[in-house]
Amino acid sequence: MYLRKVIKVLLVSFKVILLMNRVIPIAKLKYTSYLLASSIALEVAGYPKPGNVHRLRDFSDTMFEDFLITATIVEHHVFRALLRGCKLTRGFSLKILIGDLIESSVKESKRVSGGGNTCLGSALLLYPLAVACGYVACINKGVLEASSIARSARDLVYKYSTVLDSVHFYNAVRAASPSYIRKSDVVGDLPNIWDEDYREKLIAGSYRLWDILEYSSRSDIVCREIVNGYTRSLRNTLFLKERLKTHSNWNLALVETYLYQLAHDIDTLITKKHGLNIAMWVSERAKEVLDLCLTSIEKCLNTTWVFDHELAKRGINPGSSADIIVSTIALYAVQKRNSIIRTP
User: Fold this and answer.
1) Cα–Cα distance for residue pair 62/71, rounded to 1 Å
2) Pair 210, 158: CB distance under 8 Å
3) All residues at 6 or more sequence positions from 325 whose CB lies less than 8 Å from its CB, including other chains
4) How many CB atoms lie within 10 A of CB 87?
5) DSSP per residue over 18-34, as a string?
6) Which of 157, 267, 287, 294 has its CA 20 to 30 A from that of 213?
7) pLDDT-flagged residues of the chain (< 50)
8) pLDDT tens digits for 253-294?
9) Is the overall model pTM greater than 0.85, yes or no?
């Protein structure tokens, strides 16, 4: 009798698994999670990326290895985000879209590595893309094309993000504890991150994550990237592809793309820490170095190293640009799908 019950339970479980695989393409989503999560490891591995952590430069609170640990941790949460995107196409309702995933990534990465914040900005950019990939992949077996993913990421955060997403996002920021976010910051009607009653005020004001991003986009390029539909990441993806076609060197193409991003947009993290004039100077200097890179590979590496040392000496960290390179690599990877660091 007991054996019959066990067999019956196993058969039911097997049928559920088969049904889930027909309803939700688990294998396809799992593979996509590898592609998306690899973007964090690939970004930090690129060297020399002036002013940021790379394989030959650590910061006092974050090391190269911390980011590798983060990439490993993030893959699990990226897969969860993909599943949520797919479930939206099957009529499921979600109380939380991505906020808890961002919070878990920040806290778990710090706990495992013992280092500082490695992923607040990159996780904020990455999880909407993951939800969008799951959503697109499950709509009539949709093809993962960069522009449709970017557009869907923006639209899904706008449509489905909740107040609970905001609460979890505030938790994540408080856990990351960025030095440039202060109790004295003016945040309009939104509660300050360090307000003791931030949960109650977020809920009372019905502030969804989209509302937080929209307000913050005025002064933060990472939030602006989501609100604008990943326009910079899409632009950078095309540039990365062209540079790979030119010389087939992944690391060089990545560094050039980083310089390209830095040259085209003011890094708002630099602005917050050092002021607009310094941020503008960094962009102008990045353009000079990039122009040299496009004419001479040998001179490119030497000049980029000089630029890297220059920023490191002055304590200038273009962290927002590094975050956008993560979403750039993610979009490139899911569209290329195979042999992502090899020549197109």
Assistant:
1) 14
2) yes
3) 43, 46, 49, 236, 254, 257, 258, 261
4) 18
5) HHHHHHS-HHHHHHHHH
6) 287
7) 11-13, 15-21
8) 999 999 999 999 999 999 999 999 999 999 999 999 999 999
9) yes
